[in-house]
Amino acid sequence: MADQPTLLLAKSIVKSFGPTSVLKGFDLSIRSGEVHAFLGGNGAGKSTFIKIISGQHERDGGTLEFAGRELGGSAASLADTGEIAVVNQELALLPHLSVAENIAMPRMHRALGTYSERGARAIAIEALSLIDTQFARQSVGRLVGDLSLHERQLVEIARSLRSGARLLLLDEPTANLTAAETGRLFAVIRKLIAETNLAVLFVSHRMREIRQIADVCTIIRDGKTAVDRASLHAITDREIVDFMGQTVEVDQQSEANADSRSSERDTPGRSSRTGEPIRVQLSDIELDIGPGDIIGLAGAPTGPLTLIEALTGLDHKSHWKITRAGAPVKHRCPSAAARAGVGYISGDRANKGILATLPIVDNLMAAQRIVERKKLARDEEIQRGQNLLDALRIRAGSLWHLPSTLSGGTQQKILVARWLTLKPRLLVLEEPTRGVDIRTKREIYALVRKLANQGTAVVWWSTEYVELVELCDTVLAFDLSGRPTGVLRHTDVNETSLADATGMAA
Ligand SMILES: Nc1ncnc2c1ncn2[C@@H]1O[C@H](COP(=O)(O)OP(=O)(O)OP(=O)(O)O)[C@@H](O)[C@H]1O
Ligand SMILES: [Mg+2]
After folding, report:
1. Are residues 147 and 191 in the same domain?
2. Which one of 39, 249, 282, 378 is CB 3.0 to 4.6 Å from 442, fit for a cystine?
3. Which UniProt keywords apply (predicted)?
C-alpha cells in the first residue's frame, strides 16, 4: 500500500459550530486501494470531517487536496464531481422508485436523450454487477422501499461507483447490520478494492470489525490527529483506546470481564429483587424474567422483535403468552405499557427514538411525561435534564439545541437517559450500544446493571455476542427463521454457544 499515491490529503482542517470548536487543525491522508479506519470517541468530529470532505459542511480553515488537485473553500463542487461518495446512515435513496431508477437517475441530466426504462436497467445492472452479479439480477427491478438496509447500502455503493467514485466514505455502515450482513458488506468492499483500486474511509466503534476490514487507521481526539496512518498490524487495541482517550474504562472492562458476571450480579441487595417475575411462553419455550435479571435476546431481528413487541404493547395479538403470577399481562399500546412500568428503547433511533424537531430537554423528558401524564414546571424539567446530562457525561451545547446537533452516539445516550430516573419495572432495550464508543458502552452497561440492582427486570437484544456474554446470565436464542431455540444459562452463555443457537456466526 505504501507505493500507492495519496488520494486525499486534508491538512489543518478547522471547523466550529457556533461556540463549539470541533476540528482544531485536523490532518488526514488516504491512499488509493486502502481501507482506512477513522477512529475516535463519540463527538470527536468524525462525521463532521466526513461531511466536510463530502461537501455537506463548509470548513472554516485548512487545505484539501484530492488526487493532486487543490480544492477551494467550498467542498460542494468536489462532491458534485462524484469522485468522493458518502454512504450515510440516513440513506439517500428514493424508496418509491426502483433500484434501476435510483441508480440511473442521478446522472441522467448529463446524458443526452430521454429516460428509457431499458436503458436504466442496463446501467443499473452494470453498476450492481461490480458488487455482485446475482444481487444485480435479483434487485434491479425491486422497489428500494422493499429492500433491507443492507441491500440499500449496496445499491448506494453501486450508484456512487457508477458516478465515478474513487473514495468511498462509510460512516458507521455496520451499526445496524447483522453479523452476516456485515460479513457480506466486507466481502464487497474487499472485492471493490481489488478490482477498482477504490479507497474507503470506514468509521466503526467495533474493534473486531475494524481489524477485519481495515489496513491503517487515523485516530482523532480533541479535534486533532492523535494517530496518523498507523498500520493496524502495528498498533494494539490497548494503544488505540489510549489514543482515543478512553483508557480508564477499559481497565474496568478487563476487570469486569474477569468476574463481573458472577459477582456484580449476585452482590446487590437481594431485597430489591423480590416480586413476581414475568413469564413468557411460546410453544415449548418458557422463561421467567424476574426483578434484577438481565435477560439477553440473541439472533436475527425477526425472532427477538416478536417478543419485544409483545412485551412493549406494540403487538397485542402476539403468539407469545405473557403472564405474571398466573394472570395475563397485556398492554393495549406502548404508552399503556410505559405507564404500567415498561420502559422501551427502540433500536430505530432515527425514526422511533429521537424526536428530531424537539429540543434535547423534551427528548430527555419524553418518557417521564408519558408515565406521569404531566409536564413538570419548566424549571424542574431543566434541572432534571441537566442532572441527566451530567450523570451520563453528555456533551451538549444547550438543552435547547435540537438532537441533530449531537453526535450519533450521544443521541443514543439520550434515549437511555430517558428511563433512568423512572426506574421501570421492566426495561426492554434493542441494541442500545449501537454507534456508541467504548467508554460510553461501559457507562451504559453500568447504568443498566445499576437499574437491575435496584429491581428493574432488563431484556436486552444485541447482535453482538460479546456484549450478551458480558451482561447476561440468561439468554434466549432465536434461529434465523425467528423461532426461539432455547434458553442458555450461566456458563453456557458464550460466543460459540450463541453462534450455534442462532445460526449466525459472531
Ligand atoms: N450541526 C451541528 N450544530 C452544532 N453542533 C454540532 C453539529 N454537528 C455536530 N456538532 C457537534 O460537533 C461535535 C462532533 O460531532 P460528530 O457528529 O462529528 O462526532 P462523531 O465523531 O461522528 O461522533 P459519533 O461517534 O458519536 O458519531 C459534537 O460535539 C456535536 O455535538
Ligand atoms: Mg458520527
Report:
1. no
2. 249
3. ATP-binding, Cell inner membrane, Cell membrane, Membrane, Nucleotide-binding, Repeat, Sugar transport, Transport
